[in-house]
Design goal:
With 452 residues, the chain is mostly helical. Helices cover 68% and strands 6% of the residues.
């Protein structure tokens, strides 16, 4: 048996060399050494032609798992090259939640063609899950779970597990339901196996079970898992009937997806970017917020044009424009990043948001005083102009306090009016801080010159 390998640079170079020779036997042997997650990583780093060829040489028992691990964009392009019957074979090998993810990446006109090729039970499960938005509990749940009626004995419940073992996947917990299928409790497989055969399941069940409705947002589900250290989350319909379960690996995927999405938006992209996206696609995603930044820069230039007379009279004023704008921007980014993260993780909630806002302003004020004093001292020693040094120092302090307030308040305000803070905070904070910091500084400098 081949020793397992990691997908690293050496492996990639070996694979690319073999792909050039089209030596199928050696390529199959090489790919057989990788875990499905590493196979997915490998496929991500190949071009479309190489990816399609290598995918066809992956062992059948690993192919569907590798497909489920791929990034959405890469999987979509790979699926576009496969016939419906081959996609159907892959879908049948996957758990219902992973199978649904694969089918969702297909163009609408191909979905039904593929599902017609899928075995009836699996196709029925996928259709059920497709009915839920993909960012809800229903959209990420799996329909494979173990449920036993509460009136059964332990012996009967174990026999039920044996009969359905192949279709039930991993069984860390057994759900307990009433006669109408409503969730009433759960118990671990260990407790079930170690209990007397004639004891009723109802007497063993832990009634403190936290379920979520199928319509709950996936971020709320992830927060519930984090808060209560859950390994498994049952999903129920409007009537409380058990319809699925969300496992820890699904929650980890949600955290990764939401984090990637937030970072993409903070970087100025309208949607999450994939390494496989084209230059044109990435450019189109980032351009709108860059245009907003350009408009902010033009407004800043206009503000400076209104004070050209002052800067002609004392050219030293212009020296410190970058300092004021840069420091305001740095403080604003620190505050906004802290608040956006707190909102995303649930650390900052509506009742305590005012306290957090005040704290960020106080932190900004303390730093502003210390840095403003340092700048005043440097300007005094450097240029020997005490009044200009005072203006620069005071302007820096005010702009930093203002930046802390804006950086903290904007995400909270956006959250309150229903706009994703990660999407819009950056451009608003940057533009506002640049403009107000510049206005404060130049107005103070102009006033100073009018007195001298």
């Amino acid at each position: 048996m081949d020793e397992p390998r990691l997908y690293d640079r050496e492996f990639h170079d070996d694979l690319v060399a073999l792909l050039d020779t089209r030596d199928e036997k050696l390529i199959r042997a090489l790919l057989a050494q990788l875990h499905p997650a590493d196979l997915a990583d490998m496929l991500e780093h190949l071009d479309d032609e190489e990816r399609s060829y290598a995918f066809g040489l992956i062992a059948p028992e690993l192919r569907s798992q590798a497909l489920a691990e791929l990034e959405d964009g890469t999987r979509e392009r790979l699926l576009s090259q496969l016939p419906p019957d081959e996609i159907a074979d892959l879908v049948e090998e996957l758990d219902s939640d992973d199978a649904t993810d694969v089918v969702q990446d297909l163009p609408t006109e191909r979905v039904e063609r593929v599902l017609q090729e899928v075995a009836l039970p699996e196709a029925r499960d996928v259709r059920r899950l497709l009915a839920y938005p993909e960012d809800t509990a229903g959209g990420i749940m799996a329909t494979e779970f173990v449920a036993v009626p509460e009136e059964e004995t332990v012996d009967e419940a174990i026999e039920r597990l044996r009969r359905g073992a192949e279709s039930q996947g991993d069984i860390p917990y057994v759900f307990v339901v009433d006669a109408d299928g409503r969730l009433s409790g759960w118990l671990s497989l260990r407790d079930l196996l170690l209990s007397g055969p004639q004891r009723r399941v109802a007497d063993l069940a832990d009634r403190d079970v936290r379920s979520v409705p199928a319509t709950m947002d996936q971020e709320q589900v992830a927060e519930l898992v984090r808060k209560y250290d859950l390994a498994l989350v049952p999903v129920v319909d409007e009537a409380g009937r058990l319809i699925g379960q969300i496992t820890l690996d699904d929650i980890l995927d949600v955290y990764e997806q939401e984090t990637s999405e937030d970072f993409s938006r903070l970087s100025g992209a309208l949607q999450e970017e994939s390494p496989a996206d084209s230059v044109l696609t990435v450019s189109r995603n980032r351009l709108p917020w860059l245009l907003l930044g350009l408009m902010g820069g033009i407004l800043s230039a206009y503000v400076m044009s209104l004070h050209t007379t002052s800067m002609h009279r004392a050219v030293e004023i212009a020296f410190f424009v970058p300092v004021i704008m840069a420091m305001g921007g740095n403080v604003g980014i620190q505050s906004s990043a802290t608040v956006v993260r707190g909102l995303a993780t649930g650390e900052i909630r509506e009742p305590g948001s005012a306290t957090r806002l005040i704290k960020e302003i106080l932190v900004g004020a303390l730093n502003a005083i210390l840095l403003a004093f340092a700048l005043w001292l440097i300007v005094t020693v450097w240029l020997g102009k005490g009044k200009l040094a005072a203006v620069v120092g005071c302007s820096l302090a005010l702009s930093m306090v203002f930046a802390a307030a804006v950086g903290s308040a904007v995400p909270l305000l956006l959250k309150r009016i229903g706009i994703d803070p990660a999407l819009a905070t950056g451009p608003f904070v940057t533009t506002a801080n640049d403009l107000l910091g510049l206005i404060l500084y130049l107005t103070a400098a102009t006033t100073l010159l009018s007195w001298t």
